[in-house]
Amino acid sequence: MTVPTAAAAAECRDILTRLGVPASVWSSDGFEARSPIDGSVAGRVAETPDLDVVADRATAAFHQWKRLPAPRRGELVRLLGEELRASKDDLARLVTLEAGKIVSEGLGEVQEMIDICDFAVGLSRQIYGLTIASERPGHHMRETWQPLGPVLVISAFNFPVAVWAWNACLALVCGDPVIWKPSEKTPLTALATQAVLDRAIARFGEAPEGLAQLVIGGREAGEALAADPRIPLVSATGSTRMGRAVAQTVAARLGRSLLELGGNNAMIVTPSADLDMAVRAIAFSAVGTCGQRCTTLRRLLVHESIADALIARLKAAYETLPVGDPRGDGVLIGPLIDEAAGAAFDDALMQAEAEGGEVVVGGTRGAEGPGVYVRPAIVRMPAQTAVVQHETFAPILYVLTWSDFDEAVAMQNAVPQGLSSCVFTDSVREAEAFLSAWGSDCGIANVNIGPSGAEIGGAFGGEKDTGGGRESGSDAWKAYMRRQTQTVNFSRELPLAQGVKFEV
Ligand code: NAD
């Protein structure tokens, strides 16, 4: 493992200044902004003092914003895309410094923001409804999509900026103001993104005050905003524990929630699979982002006839994985976000061994020092025990074997979460069965592709404990709008539906 070099925090402050974040964000008593690379602290960031004012401003902004034509709203998002392109390197570097992602993943995250801007700009001219045949003469019916109101975006540390963009770009073209409560572990990337957005807003010229607000705060701030009836939609990304709490709060006031929660993603490897491809896909999806993606591969379900050979190849690949300062050339695995994540990694490995697991490779910590660096682990398990059922947000891959394909699909589905899944096979029968109604029960199902690294064009999200929400592409935009069925009578009669007679 390579040891961190230059203090990450100092670099953070330089980038923030370059991106135009005002010095007034620093405070002596706010949230500590630290880099997981070396634990260095960039400073403390002031918490947003008055959430009531935030909700009021968003409500006022809604009344103006919804009156602008959607293609005009799309122009703001187009400008945001331009500003993001101009700031891509700095913002990506900040993602690396604050979330610990390797350089290409930091750049990839900002590219994802740019891609969703492009998608949303196109969408701003394609917010279609329906026309519906009316049973009444001289009437027409249609279904229209109207702006919904302020949208609260609660985001997790591991995609500190892309998740905001997925939500905000769609919400803005749909006519909704956005309130963003980022993870308390990544306030700097949020402040930087807000500065980039503010530049786009200044160029746009007619955005109401309060259209896109950033709330710096912890869990309590998220709880308070989720309870606010002025916010019709809460889009929350994070742990299942958080999603359960948010869902109940929002449901209690009959609001709408869009939940993107934890995953426990599996790959089924069949005897006909191309093992060269499978090994590469497994390595990227199991250890990329140090196992801290919602779509990280956590369960490898291998046919018993090829398990020993595949595990031997993975063991060899894992032994040479470059772990270290994510800014370093050739490094593929950066740090875990904090010591609590390191403790969860250690605890899960101990529990796995207690439940009959055998650590094949990895599982150790880096040398003492700042930053939590671990060697990704592969653990052979006798069954899908309690530890396998649980999402540990760290690079641990559990390997299990099967003898019958239907049994493998049943194993893939037999966990509480339902985000991403995949099969490696050259059999069209197995591939199609995996994608059928009795196949994978997840929101994402892939063939000969790992579970991680989705494109923005598809709807993203999962079932069961993953929360059921869909974001990003396809028709995910409908969650950010209010559906209205409209009937117009252009005749001189007043016929009632279902033949009802009511003469007065
Ligand atoms: P977390 O649940 O600890 O925090 C996420 C966010 O929720 C933070 O902003 C936090 O302040 C806020 N929060 C926590 N409790 C809250 C409450 N009761 N009410 C309102 N807000 C609350 O998650 P994390 O550790 O930052 O992120 C890791 C988790 O996120 C993993 O489980 C991962 O799978 C999941 N995740 C899911 C997706 C997805 O699209 N499905 C994407 C990224 C991350």
TrEMBL record:
Catalytic residue positions: 260
Pfam families hit by this protein: Aldedh
Enzyme Commission identifier(s): 1.2.1.3
Top-level EC class: oxidoreductase
SUPFAM superfamilies: ALDH-like
Keyword NAD recorded: yes
InterPro entries: Ald_DH/histidinol_DH (IPR016161), Ald_DH_C (IPR016163), Ald_DH_CS_GLU (IPR029510), Ald_DH_N (IPR016162), Aldehyde_DH_dom (IPR015590), ALDH7A1-like (IPR044638)
Keywords: NAD, Oxidoreductase
Domain Aldehyde dehydrogenase per the UniProt entry, residue ranges: 30-485
Ranges annotated as spanning the membrane: none
Family indicated by similarity: Belongs to the aldehyde dehydrogenase family.
Subunit structure as annotated in this protein's UniProt entry: Homotetramer.
Protein name from the UniProt record: aldehyde dehydrogenase (NAD(+))
High-level lineage: Bacteria, Pseudomonadati, Pseudomonadota, Alphaproteobacteria, Caulobacterales
